[in-house]
Amino acid sequence: xxxxxxxxxxxxxxxxxxxxxxxxxxxxxxxxxxxxxxxxxxxxxxxxxxxxxxxxxxxxxxxxxxxxxxxxxxxxxxxxxxxxxxxxxxxxxxxxxxxxxxxxxxxxxxxxxxxxxxxxxxxxxxxxxxxxxxxxxxxxxxxxxxxxxxxxxxxxxxxxxxxxxxxxxxxxxxxxxxxxxxxxxxxxxxxxxxxxxxxxxxxxxxxxxxxxxxxxxxxxxxxxxxxxxxxxxxxxxxxxxxxxxxxxxxxxxxxxxxxxxxxxxxxxxxxxxxxxxxxxxxxxxxxxxxxxxxxxxxxxxxxxxxxxxxxxxxxxxxxxxxxxxxxxxxxxxxxxxxxxxxxxxxxxxxxxxxxxxxxxxxxxxxxxxxxxxxxxxxxxxxxxxxxxxxxxxxxxxxxxxxxxxxxxxxxxxxxxxxxxxxxxxxxxxx
Length: 430
Description:
The chain has helices at 15-24, 26-59, 61-65, 67-95, 97-116, 121-148, 155-179, 186-192, 195-206, 212-217, 221-231, 234-258, 262-271, 273-291, 294-307, 313-341, 343-370, 389-393, 402-407. It is globular, with a radius of gyration of 25 Å. It folds into 2 domains: 15-208 and 292-364, MFS general substrate transporter like domains (Growth Hormone, Chain: A, Up-down Bundle), CATH 1.20.1250; 372-430, no CATH class. The protein is mainly α. 75% of the residues lie in helices and 0% in strands. Helix 16 (313-341) packs antiparallel against helix 17. The longest helix has 34 residues, at 26-59.
């Protein structure tokens, strides 16, 4: 279950093996899904702010006028997640995976409630920090807990449930955003309801055991054995216990060989070719994933849709469901194929798809810019008494087209051929 040390080729287990195993041992599903709610919280936080931001701007004029406030509201969750991930590793090693997840739930629920009752933008920012701390801890600890409580032959599929719940949480957030567009306290409901899954996970985790690997490292041998007996058939539990023992002993031996303090451990780890190659691979994958721009799309998806010409908040949120839905479908496909074809192959295929889509978008944007229709003060609201100071003060406004208006922060314009009211957008024009 938790054997380690040697690097082997990906397991070729069919995905139906996962279903067979979990069907026979539903306790495994309970462990994986309960811990995976941390991924759901992560995904929900990523997606919910995109829709909530539209209505926060309507309630707080300073947020609508100042883009740096919008950026701060969005980014403070990421800043909090950096801190949460940094301390989450230490907390999970010191106090256990279970307690780390419970603390993450408390932080997330507290942040959600602070945002829901925020009387001013700075309270929303504070709540975003709390939520980020919880997300950072959960995003690190939840997959760790699942991997340490999963049989090796289906570990890839079970850990992928965390990724599925992340993308599922994003899709759910867009649905909830759309559902609350007609309510009185739109964005408050959108942000505050996130406390519900955090509370649910907190209750579920109270009834679940600690990670068997962590217990074994704390010399709680019998507790670790009792958990393994719930996960594996009686004839396999002893073998898994022996594998766990060998793995932990090898890990401790490697740790002592590397060094005792942090500096020595860093030097020792970097001097180890296996650790170094793994570190390079991990950093490369994460950097490539972030530079794909998917987080920006998720954080600002409805705003991007509005930039494309769909002014209605409801329409923008509805169209954003397409992106989040396809994202969730991709996670399901990866779960079905990860143990059959391996991690590396799926990663290469997905990166090739990302490159192809980004190049296609670049071409589309270039064509849109070069073919944007010309505008004039007779076709639009850019009359001398218009509301766009950039156009009024421009030395040569005659060459302007719809792209020029977009860059000026005023949204789309209209001409005699393609009518689209400038009143659709009110970003910086007051």
